[in-house]
């Protein structure tokens, strides 16, 4: 089946989709993005993702590329046209096309927008979740504004590639205090020996994940005890369980951190249960 992308007002064949060479996203990474899960013909937690998109845009003083309602429609339409039943929908907004100059372009330059959708196999994801993943620690080297979901992902690319070459699936950033901040494209969690869920507070050092928020809702609903506090890499090595969350992975158990096996080396009960129950707390918008 041929894929379709939405680019600045038009649905075009994916293979022909293009942006201008002087798009500021291309030249300066001057743009932001969101990834929403598509689950059983629904876009998951779209309101929360669009709220965060709005926040990222406003922090960078980039305008909305269209009204929010229209964007909701374009996301759903892109999913529909690509016949994606399970997978993800991606939206990227940049400061637009203008002659290369570090200063913001003139007011009349419109933001650029691209939307794509991609199918993925739920069976393959389940298989991975049943095995769990390994993560590899990496020194935190990103700018302090990681709360903004910018397309400037070069540090994340390098950290994740390092993890891959060391046999892992994800990198865990560790800050100067020895605390885990988050993954290269996920939030990080542990379950302590006394069964407490722990994840870093969203005030600093992390992106405030939408999946993280849903898992916190789920923990409350299930009566699990949890703490939003910093945890060190050492504490994570000794944890009963560890896992990561993101729209692309949902709740993904971690069974090894660097050379240390976590728990008994198999996905933990808490992570597995949170994964199973995940969609009971999410907002589902049928496409
Ligand atoms: N990444 N932290 C970082 C650095 C991320 O890039 C992401 C998401 C998350 C989790 O956020 P959420 O739960 O809202 O997906 C945390 C997306 C999926 C990506 O870049 O592909």
Automatic annotation (TrEMBL):
<dbReference type="InterPro" id="IPR043131">
    <property type="entry name" value="BCAT-like_N"/>
</dbReference>
<keyword id="KW-0663">Pyridoxal phosphate</keyword>
<protein>
    <recommendedName>
        <fullName>Probable branched-chain-amino-acid aminotransferase</fullName>
        <ecNumber>2.6.1.42</ecNumber>
    </recommendedName>
</protein>
<dbReference type="InterPro" id="IPR036038">
    <property type="entry name" value="Aminotransferase-like"/>
</dbReference>
<dbReference type="GO" id="GO:0009082">
    <property type="term" value="P:branched-chain amino acid biosynthetic process"/>
</dbReference>
<dbReference type="GO" id="GO:0004084">
    <property type="term" value="F:branched-chain-amino-acid transaminase activity"/>
</dbReference>
<comment type="function">
    <text>Acts on leucine, isoleucine and valine.</text>
</comment>
<dbReference type="GO" id="GO:0008652">
    <property type="term" value="P:amino acid biosynthetic process"/>
</dbReference>
<dbReference type="Pfam" id="PF01063">
    <property type="entry name" value="Aminotran_4"/>
</dbReference>
<dbReference type="InterPro" id="IPR043132">
    <property type="entry name" value="BCAT-like_C"/>
</dbReference>
<comment type="similarity">
    <text>Belongs to the class-IV pyridoxal-phosphate-dependent aminotransferase family.</text>
</comment>
<comment type="pathway">
    <text>Amino-acid biosynthesis; L-valine biosynthesis; L-valine from pyruvate: step 4/4.</text>
</comment>
<keyword id="KW-0100">Branched-chain amino acid biosynthesis</keyword>
<dbReference type="GO" id="GO:0005829">
    <property type="term" value="C:cytosol"/>
</dbReference>
<dbReference type="InterPro" id="IPR001544">
    <property type="entry name" value="Aminotrans_IV"/>
</dbReference>
<dbReference type="InterPro" id="IPR050571">
    <property type="entry name" value="Class-IV_PLP-Dep_Aminotrnsfr"/>
</dbReference>
<comment type="pathway">
    <text>Amino-acid biosynthesis; L-leucine biosynthesis; L-leucine from 3-methyl-2-oxobutanoate: step 4/4.</text>
</comment>
<keyword id="KW-0028">Amino-acid biosynthesis</keyword>
């Amino acid at each position: 089946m041929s894929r379709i992308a939405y680019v600045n007002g038009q649905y075009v064949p994916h293979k022909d989709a293009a942006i201008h060479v002087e798009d500021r996203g291309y030249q300066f990474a001057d743009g932001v993005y969101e990834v929403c899960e598509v689950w059983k013909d629904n876009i998951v937690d779209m309101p929360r993702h669009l709220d965060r998109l709005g926040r990222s845009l406003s922090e960078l003083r980039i305008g909305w590329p269209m009204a929010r309602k229209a964007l909701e429609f374009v996301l759903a339409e892109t999913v529909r046209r690509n016949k994606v039943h399970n997978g993800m929908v991606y939206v990227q907004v940049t400061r637009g096309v203008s002659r290369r100059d570090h200063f913001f372009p003139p007011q009349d330059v419109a933001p650029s927008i691209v939307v794509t959708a991609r199918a993925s196999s739920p069976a393959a994801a389940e298989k991975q979740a049943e095995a769990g993943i390994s993560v590899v620690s990496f020194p935190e080297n990103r700018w302090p504004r990681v709360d903004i979901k910018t397309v400037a992902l070069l540090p994340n690319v390098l950290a994740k590639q390092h993890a891959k070459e060391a046999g892992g699936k994800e990198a865990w950033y560790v800050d100067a205090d020895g605390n885990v901040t988050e993954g290269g494209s996920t939030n990080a969690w542990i379950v302590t020996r006394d069964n407490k869920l722990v994840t870093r507070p969203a005030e600093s050092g992390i992106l405030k994940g939408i999946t993280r928020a849903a898992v916190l809702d789920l923990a409350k609903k299930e009566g699990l005890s949890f703490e939003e506090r910093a945890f060190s890499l050492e504490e994570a090595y000794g944890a009963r369980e560890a896992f990561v969350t993101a729209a692309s992975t949902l709740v993904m158990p971690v069974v090894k951190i660097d050379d240390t096996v976590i728990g008994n080396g198999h996905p933990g009960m808490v992570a597995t249960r949170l994964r199973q129950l995940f969609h009971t707390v999410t907002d589902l918008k049928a496409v």
